[in-house]
Amino acid sequence: xxxxxxxxxxxxxxxxxxxxxxxxxxxxxxxxxxxxxxxxxxxxxxxxxxxxxxxxxxxxxxxxxxxxxxxxxxxxxxxxxxxxxxxxxxxxxxxxxxxxxxxxxxxxxxxxxxxxxxxxxxxxxxxxxxxxxxxxxxxxxxxxxxxxxxxxxxxxxxxxxxxxxxxxxxxxxxxxxxxxxxxxxxxxxxxxxxxxxxxxxxxxxxxxxxxxxxxxxxxxxxxxxxxxxxxxxxxxxxxxxxxxxxxxxxxxxxxxxxxxxxxxxxxxxxxxxxxxxxxxxxxxxxxxxxxxxxxxxxxxxxxxxxxxxxxxxxxxxxxxxxxxxxxxxxxxxxxxxxxxxxxxxxxxxxxxxxxxxxxxxxxxxxxxxxxxxxxxxxxxxxxxxxxxxxxxxxxxxxxxxxxxxxxxxxxxxxxxxxxxxxxxxxxxxxxxxxxxxxxxxxxxxxxxxxxxxxxxxxxxxxxxxxxxxxxxxxxxx
Length: 477
Hints:
- The strands form six sheets. Strands 2-1-11-10-7-8 form a six-stranded antiparallel beta sheet, with no helix packed on it. Strands 12-13-14-15-17-16 form a six-stranded antiparallel beta sheet, with helices on one face. A five-stranded mixed beta sheet has the order 4-3-5-6-9, with no helix packed on it.
- A hairpin with an 8-residue loop joins strand 19 (297-299) and strand 20.
- By secondary structure, it is α+β, with helices and mostly antiparallel strands.
- Helix 4 packs antiparallel against helix 6 and helix 5 packs across helix 7 (404-416).
- The chain has helices at 7-11, 208-219, 251-256, 265-284, 336-343, 351-368, 404-416, 423-426, 430-439, 450-454, 457-460, 463-476, and strands spanning 36-43, 49-55, 60-63, 70-71, 82-88, 94-100, 106-108, 111-113, 117-119, 125-127, 133-138, 162-165, 168-177, 181-188, 193-201, 229-234, 238-244, 287-288, 297-299, 308-310, 317-318, 323-324, 349-350.
């Protein structure tokens, strides 16, 4: 899709239904293709056993509309009742989910959900109320396939384990993992809703009172573009944070899933509008995120023109108008003043302008498919820069990357390089280039704030359409 297409033009038709075939069940030992992620087995009203095949980037729809993937004639079924998705998660797995679009909801394992998106695990039973049931069977591991030489043949099916923490039932179904934390699917037993439980390994030197004070600040946040923190609990080994569940993966995976790893101008504008509204909410409360990057922006549910949420507030800072001498975040998203403060310990930087710089980097990546500073070494490039850090980086625990050598080149470019806007991409979108360049101003007092960015010509030329789409998506989830 061309990058110069407007928001209104590019959004039209993005939710059109696509027809998919529904096949009879295969022989007892099927060999599905690698693209098949899940199958949904059901028995039709005439007693026929059928299976819906779900693949990545090919969602299935269930409803009365003849264009749905699977058509149900029952009067209790909405025209478009629900949509089934399979997407890649950040840890290399597959997230299978169901988005309810109906008037009377869907039933998962005997409990009703309405106007939300839920994750479906292997063996889950999904039902259209007073209509058919569908058994979800995950297929993204072939029968007989082994992960390593020590796996049994055939593999032993892992039993789902659960653990009760506060009013939440935490399952062993892992949604993501990192060096110091894992995220598991959990159930809020009081409200009966799915949530995410992020379990962070505590360090012996952690001052838990300070940590809980910061968590309580996050619990008080309430904005549609901020990943909601419901509750927190800790023991001697872990801090458990219960979060609003997002089923659409992260923005990085969403971007790279597109052709040339680029989004059209219209979709970029819609996502940036939400990102800046979420940042405005934070900055108005004098909170800075300090680690904005596509991996920390979640999609509330799968599909085009997604509702996004800013997540992972582990490095967030209150009183963000004050200068800090503790640099944290990801090198390739740090502003010049952050890079200088990182390598010259007597220098500080301010969190809110740093967030605006990071937002500019994210905007650049969405429109171009590449990072303005983080790319392969160009011949002769080492002669272009004179910047040298005052000392070696030493302890990298506060910075989320692994290659010190490549970071040094990126840091040189950020401190001494100017952002290039290739004409073949940007010449048709001058208002977008103008905003992006204002967010990537070297001198942070002159850098665009979130308030100024939201008033830019790029947004104002389609503000009514943006606001209407924003309200519609926030209501529908």
